[in-house]
Amino acid sequence: MRVSDLAERYGTPLYVYDAAVIRQRCADLAAWDTVRFAQKACSNLAVLDLVRREGVLVDAVSHGEIARAIAAGYPTTAAPQTNPDALPPADPIVYTADIFDRESLEAVVRHGIHVNCGSADMLDQLAERVPGAHVTLRINPGFGHGHSQKTNTGGEGSKHGIWHEDVPDVLRRAEWAGLSVSGLHMHIGSGTDLEHLATVADALEKTAREIGRSLTTISAGGGLPVPYRADEPRPDLSGYFTLWDTTRKRLEDAFGHRIRLEIEPGRYLTAESGALITEVRAIKRQGSKKYLLVDAGFHTLARPVLYGSYHPMSLAPAAQPPSGHEAVAIGGPLCESGDIFTQEEGGFVSTRDLPPARVGDLLIIEIAGAYGFVMASNYNSKPFPAEVLIDAGQSRLVRARQTAEDLLRGESVTGLPES
Q1: Which of 41, 96, 307, 345: disulfide with 266, CB 3.0–4.6 Å?
Q2: Exactly one of 26, 42, 117, 335 is catalytic; which is it?
């Protein structure tokens, strides 16, 4: 389907997702007992429904994400286990967080959602409402790794998880509260490699032995990288699975029962499926730099301003462009100097080599299907973009573009008389 046709039909800026790519990424992980989508990466209902139909379960980090999972067709509790020799059943929805805000606790209680606890206080709060519940513990092993310090979720600099040295006290606290620890989860950050993951697997195994035979599920967390640049390798999925499967088998031998092995990908399932289509609206020179200004900004895609993240870009010209390429910086419409898509971490403006552009040409920001729309905002009172899913060559609007009326909904003036 032509980019120009999509832009004409749905407008810009526009997020577009390719269903075939998502299905392939789900199939890539078929060796795992459970693939659990970290929906914070891309929580559109159509995407959740798609991965559900591929047998992927879901992780939720808020009461809103619990509501999304239910709306997409996920049941709230696992089917009862009928074969004692089979793997323990997997919970369709797991709530993972470091706190219960009041709305999330109510949703967990109301729907019977399994909880992955990242703080010890959550145990007392859950036990008060759901005596005898089974829980998963998310453990911070004391170290982390990530493509950016802001995506590092382990070590002293991270708020996430129960500190590894506190595990004995937390287990006593769970026992006093009448809770059963049936799951163990570790995740140290995004973009991890096998060397770091081997260290995580060793740390998880050590903690699992502290917990003991009540464990029926271990989760390797997420962090599977995708290549954003042409020279970046794809992850070694076979080596990744073998590493964790070996850990699982040692624990099964130690505990005398089967253990479910989960993985929790987010970006891996959706990043490469997505593109952000935006229109060039102005071209200008600022000293030695040439800028293309487009109608998307960091309110549409925040990763470059947050992390200095790189996204491939290409141009879809409205007419035959002049030959050659030129170095250009790509900026958005916001009243912020940081509203630049071509920037390094730290905010330094860089450039890309693209064919010469004209106003009205379309720019495609690629590999934008994870942490794209979900991090969008209404800054500068800009409406949210539309989202479109392409499946079998057909496009379908899966989120309407926000209107000015939508922006104002729920607000009111004070009602004070005019002076």
Answers
A1: 41
A2: 335
